[in-house]
Amino acid sequence: MSELRLDPVTRRWIVTGKREVMPDVLDSGALCPFCPGNEQFTPQPTCEVRDSTGAWVVRSFHDRAPLFRIEGGFDRRGEGIFDRMNTVGAHEIIVETPQHGVTLSRLPLEQITKVIEVCRDRILDLKRDHRFRYVSLFRDQHPPAPSVRGHSHGEILATPVLPQLLEIELRWSMVHFQKKDRCLHCDIIQQELQEGKRIVDENNDFVALCPFASHSPYELWLLPLVHSSSFEKDTLKPGAASALASFLKSCLERIEKLSDTLHLVLHTEPNLGAHKPTKDWWKSIPEDFHWHIEIHPDVEGVRRYLGSRGFFFNPIPAEQAAVVLRALEPGTEVEPPSS
């Protein structure tokens, strides 16, 4: 049985222990359980979108061996200086298309919109459970393969604690807001638009930029131009999911000209209805935080490195990366610069 343990030095929560397979899961063998006709090899869906013929086009269900589980209580307990608790939460899979071997960027705009709407609805639903402080959305994309790795899908984690990186972002966003009464990301967007050096794409709703201190080569951030702390609430607005789908599709098309292996993660506000350690816990989040999507391609030969002293080494500066990504329009072939 897995559990959460708190590292007392870094204050980072670690999931440790065996991931047990859920009892409602069958072994699919060599078959991809995400393909139509193999639904018996996946758990019962938590959400399913169907077309006019009744066939599913997007579906979600809990992971066969989830990191976090809905059942049970926290059972917080101490062991001297150490802290541990149960992995209460949720771990869901979002199958983005019935087609095997097709990446998200190659799906029709209407299909990507449906994917965004399902992700939004699952986040909203999971946040109704006030045991969960945060709901993460991420996807690891790999080259086409016969297995699950080759079937386009994302993952959702609902957790009773904040991911450490997100908590750091929230804290510094709050500090900036307390000093200047402005959103940190709004200030970044304004400066980047003025300078233009790291802007890759923009329209009336979104901007895509290579962050000034990029952690990885060709790292790309997508941010809404109008301030909003919540992806899931923002995309409830009429036409918002479709607008994001169009912009995300074009950004992924650029990235995939460099690499079709990538990591995508959504940063959105925590569950503001969850238990708060103090009365004023994150009370300014709607004003100080700005939701965004990060895309980290895995480019052969210029991958991200973590130095032995704890520093990220990125051989491609953000300004150089932006020049390359801006040039990657459909029909063009651009070789990434050497490091």
Number of domains: 2
Q: What about the largest sheet?
A: 10 strands, antiparallel
What's the total count of β strands?
Answer: 16
Shape: globular
Sequence of strands across the biggest β-sheet: 3-4-7-9-8-13-14-12-11-10
Helical percentage: 10-25%
Q: In oligomeric terms, what are we looking at?
A: single chain
The structural class is alpha+beta
Number of helices: 7
**At the third CATH level, what is the topology name of the largest domain?**
HIT family, subunit A
Q: Can you tell me the CATH class of the largest domain? A: Alpha Beta
Strand content: 15-25%
Residue ranges: pLDDT <50 for 5 or more in a row? none
Order of helices and strands: EEEEEEEHEEHHEEEHHEHEEEH
Let me know the average pLDDT. 90
The CATH superfamily name of the largest domain is HIT-like
CATH architecture of the largest domain: 2-Layer Sandwich
Q: CA-to-CA gap between the ends?
A: 44 Å
Radius of gyration (Å): 20 Å
Brief summary of the model shown:
The protein is built from 7 helices and 16 strands. It has helices at 109-126, 164-180, 184-195, 231-234, 240-256, 285-288, 318-327, and strands at 3-7, 12-16, 45-50, 56-62, 77-79, 82-86, 90-95, 134-141, 153-159, 199-202, 206-209, 220-224, 262-267, 292-297, 305-306, 312-313.
Structure description:
With 339 residues, the protein is of the alpha+beta class. It folds into two domains: 3-159, HIT family, subunit A; 179-327, HIT family, subunit A (2-Layer Sandwich), CATH 3.30.428. It is built from seven helices and 16 strands. It has a ten-stranded antiparallel sheet with strand order 3-4-7-9-8-13-14-12-11-10, with helices on both faces. A four-stranded antiparallel sheet has the order 2-1-6-5, with no helix packed on it. Strands 15-16 form a two-stranded antiparallel ribbon. Helix 1 crosses helix 5. 37% of the residues are buried.
